[in-house]
From TrEMBL:
InterPro entries: DUF2277. It comes from Streptomyces fuscus. This is DUF2277 domain-containing protein.
Amino acid sequence: MCRSIKTLRPPALPEEATEADIRAAALQYVRKVSGFRAPAAHNQEVFDEAVDAIAEATARLLAGLEIRGQTPRKAD
């Protein structure tokens, strides 16, 4: 149904995760949990809201993680 969600924090990702990386992971998560690759029109709004919420939470998580040798950054 969908590809594996990849680790987005250093050192697993050689550089900082981009907004596109975070959104792609959120989309994959929502697809997996909902069981829909593409939702029907009547489910599109709630599907998109879930992707947005998960992307925001992921960005906050990544920004707040303390990784040895690096200082945490603030989420945009």
